[in-house]
């Protein structure tokens, strides 16, 4: 049976950007750089992500399940895929909170 | 429009200063998230999927051009250039940075706005008729009462920590355009046999997991006593309302577990024992507040109706817009205009900063500087001369605000759903967009039809009250949509009934088409969907929807 894989995600305190725990006290908006914990190491990863002097970088850190897709990490749930990739429709379709100057796409791409 | 007095200005400015310090302490690590969360929520700041979301209060949906321009500026400077009007007639900005929120609240305060009590277990925005003060079928303008309730309810010390949130709506017209019966407490202004004005009070409405319509608990409360009666309603709720279970904490659960008669009895006892005079509203105060909503200085010169008819004859798209989006006004020669925010294929309720500024300009030029927000997620210009309708439509159309679909099948109420909201279990916006595209060509033939959609059981999209309601849920990792039929808002309010198993996302537009096709086949003259549904029952709709294909 394939190992279950989890990463830690939260929202950046100052601006709410979706971020992922990359290990060694670092957080990143790039999901592919997230540190992956397999099986029963996940809770230890979540604990490690919450170590540090206040304020911690991420609000509401949680574990989410992912799969590997080549070099990429892909969240298992639709909710987390939308958090990672931005809304699926509307003026900010495909844009995340990180994008400083998003162009209005207006694309009705509702398949993720 | 009501203008802040010195007390209001000082209060809001002090609140911004308090909040600025709270944010500073949070960013400095002096407050934990658990400590800070209730503080930010009290100022309307949520954390959603992609970023912080600021919900800005728009008391009883009233806006003027100054506020519109300030909102456009905030949307452009601090967000992504657009905002989303909610079914509580508030405005949500979905891409907010915490560190900038004190500046945003200061900007709002400069135009007499704030985000207080757009969250939390207290009073939320009191809503009323978007046609208030101008509706041809109105008994009296309900806005002064909404404003008096706002003043009384803001940071009310006794009711700041209710078992759950509390929503009030007021109707003063023959037609209920505020969906009063879905509220925790509703007020219907009417006259008693002596010809005195007062309110029928209905309590215990609400949607969400357990939908109920509000029920009458007192047929007539004199205007002067309405605050003390609401206070008694709240005290009974505060005393007996459940705090042990989030899903059973709304007043609707209390009213329906006690029974409306028993609840009314408890309220009556509380009311009679209370110091009613302490918060009786003097006639002079009602008059003082009403003066802030005095009618504008209408241009009562004759309107060339023949010219309007010619413009409509020469331009079918304009004629269609007049038919669908222009409403009777109490003053001859004038009209109330709905600006639809439901352009087919776009996100319902969304508006760009540029569009907001167009509305501000048009409000200044053609509507005494005023605009309203309707709970259906549209805007209203309340004072338009009929001989300016063609100009108005051309300008709106150029700004992609001229959609002619008020109360048609593409005028879909829709929450932000899983594209933005942390509570949602399924997407709603893209599904609503696909329904609108699928049904647009048929909307004139269908006539009045209300589709309402929510992306979770909290029912921000009022799906229970849709002629067809859609509730998005996640099942085994897939988004599916539960369909309810026969819901209705207004005086004939009804909670829709679930028709059968949920349908897959891709199948929703065809399912809607099928259901509406049956309605069109079975309806009798003048029947709206809820009437047809009540007459013929669920069976023909269910058979068609689940027929093997």
Give structural notes.
- The complex is a heterodimer of chains A (112) and B (549).
- Chain A has 112 residues and is of the alpha+beta class.
- Chain A has helices at 42-49, 78-85; strands at residues 5-12, 18-23, 26-28, 37-38, 58-69, 72-75.
- Chain A contains two helices and six strands.
- In chain A, strands 1, 2, 3, 4, 5 and 6 form a six-stranded antiparallel β-sheet that branches.
- The longest helix of chain A has 8 residues, at 42-49.
- Chain B has 549 residues and is of the alpha+beta class.
- In chain B, strands 16, 17, 18, 19, 20 and 21 form a six-stranded mixed β-sheet that branches. Chain B has a five-stranded antiparallel β-sheet with strand order 1-2-5-4-13. In chain B, strands 3-14-15-12-11 form a five-stranded antiparallel β-sheet.
- In chain B, strand 8 and strand 9 (197-203) form a beta hairpin.
- In chain B, helix 10 (305-314) packs across helix 11 (316-325) and helix 14 (429-439) packs across helix 16 (508-522).
- The interface between A and B is large, with 31 and 41 residues.
Question: What is the strand and helix layout of this fold?
Answer:
The complex is a heterodimer of chains A (112) and B (549).
Chain A: E1 5-12, E2 18-23, E3 26-28, E4 37-38, H1 42-49, E5 58-69, E6 72-75, H2 78-85
Antiparallel strand pairs in A: 1-2, 1-4, 1-5, 2-3, 5-6
Chain B: H1 6-27, H2 33-42, E1 45-47, E2 52-56, E3 62-64, H3 65-78, E4 82-85, E5 91-96, H4 101-109, E6 127-128, H5 143-153, E7 168-171, E8 185-191, E9 197-203, E10 215-222, H6 226-240, H7 251-258, H8 260-273, H9 283-291, H10 305-314, H11 316-325, E11 326-328, E12 334-339, E13 350-352, H12 353-366, E14 370-374, E15 378-385, H13 389-398, E16 413-414, H14 429-439, H15 443-446, E17 451-454, E18 468-475, E19 478-485, E20 497-498, E21 503-504, H16 508-522, H17 529-536, H18 539-545
Parallel strand pairs in B: 6-7, 7-8, 16-17, 17-18
Antiparallel strand pairs in B: 1-2, 2-5, 3-14, 4-5, 4-13, 8-9, 9-10, 11-12, 12-15, 14-15, 18-19, 19-20, 19-21
């Amino acid at each position: 049976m394939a190992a279950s894989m989890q990463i830690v995600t939260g929202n950046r305190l100052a601006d709410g950007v979706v971020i992922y725990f990359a290990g060694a006290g670092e957080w990143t908006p790039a999901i592919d750089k997230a540190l992956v914990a397999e099986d029963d190491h996940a809770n230890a990863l979540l604990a490690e992500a919450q170590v540090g002097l206040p304020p911690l970088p991420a609000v509401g850190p949680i574990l989410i399940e992912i799969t590997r897709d080549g070099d990429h990490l892909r969240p298992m749930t639709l909710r987390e895929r939308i958090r990672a990739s931005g809304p699926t429709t509307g003026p900010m379709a495909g844009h995340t909170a990180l994008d400083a100057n998003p162009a209005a796409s207006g694309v009705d791409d509702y398949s993720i | 429009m009501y203008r802040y007095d010195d007390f209001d200005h000082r209060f809001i400015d002090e609140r911004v200063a308090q909040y600025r310090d709270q944010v500073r302490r949070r960013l400095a690590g002096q407050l934990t998230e658990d400590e800070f969360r209730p503080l930010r929520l009290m100022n309307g700041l949520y954390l959603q999927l992609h970023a912080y979301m600021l919900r800005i209060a728009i008391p009883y949906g009233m806006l003027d051009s100054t506020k519109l321009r300030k909102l456009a500026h905030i949307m452009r400077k601090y967000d992504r250039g657009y905002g989303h009007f909610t079914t509580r007639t508030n405005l949500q900005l979905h891409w907010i940075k915490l560190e900038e929120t004190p500046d945003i609240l200061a900007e709002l305060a400069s135009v007499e706005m704030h985000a207080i009590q757009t969250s939390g277990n207290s009073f939320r925005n009191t809503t009323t008729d978007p046609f208030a003060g101008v509706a041809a079928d109105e008994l009296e303008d309900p806005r002064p009462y909404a404003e008096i309730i706002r003043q009384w309810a803001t940071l009310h010390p006794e009711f700041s920590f209710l078992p759950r949130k509390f929503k009030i709506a007021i109707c003063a017209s023959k037609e209920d355009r505020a969906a009063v019966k879905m509220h925790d407490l509703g007020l219907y202004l009417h006259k008693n046999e002596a010809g005195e004005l007062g309110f029928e009070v209905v309590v215990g409405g609400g949607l969400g997991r357990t939908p109920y319509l509000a029920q009458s608990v007192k047929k007539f409360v004199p205007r002067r006593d309405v605050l003390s009666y609401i206070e008694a309603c709240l005290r009974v709720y505060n005393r007996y309302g459940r705090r042990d279970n989030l899903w059973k904490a709304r007043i609707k659960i209390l009213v329906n577990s006690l029974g409306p008669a028993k609840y009314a009895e408890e309220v009556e006892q509380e009311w009679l024992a209370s110091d009613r005079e302490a918060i009786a509203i003097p006639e002079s105060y009602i008059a003082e507040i009403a003066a802030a909503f005095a009618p504008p200085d209408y241009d009562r010169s004759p309107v060339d109706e023949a010219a309007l008819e010619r413009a409509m004859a020469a331009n079918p798209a304009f004629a269609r817009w007049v038919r669908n989006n222009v409403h009777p006004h109490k003053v001859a020669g004038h009209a109330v205009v709905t600006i639809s925010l439901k352009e087919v294929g776009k996100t319902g309720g969304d508006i760009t900063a540029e569009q907001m500024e167009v509305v501000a300009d048009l409000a200044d030029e053609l509507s005494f500087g005023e605009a309203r927000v309707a709970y259906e997620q549209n805007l209203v210009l309340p004072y338009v001369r009929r001989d300016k309708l063609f100009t108005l439509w051309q300008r709106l159309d150029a700004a992609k605000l001229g959609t002619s679909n008020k109360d048609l099948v593409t005028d879909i109420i829709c929450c932000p759903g899983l594209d933005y909201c942390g509570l949602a279990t399924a997407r709603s916006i893209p599904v609503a967009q696909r329904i609108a595209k699928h049904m647009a060509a048929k909307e004139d033939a269908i006539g009045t039809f209300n589709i309402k959609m929510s992306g979770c059981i909290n029912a921000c999209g009022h799906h229970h009250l849709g002629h067809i309601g859609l509730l998005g849920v996640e099942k085994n990792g897939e988004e599916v949509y539960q369909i309810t039929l026969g819901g209705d808002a207004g005086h004939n309010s009804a909670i829709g009934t679930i028709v059968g198993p949920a349908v897959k996302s891709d199948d929703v537009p065809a399912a809607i088409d099928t259901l509406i096709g049956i309605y069109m086949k079975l309806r009798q003259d003048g029947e709206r969907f809820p009437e047809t549904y009540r007459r013929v029952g669920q069976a023909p709709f269910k058979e068609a929807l689940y027929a093997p294909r």
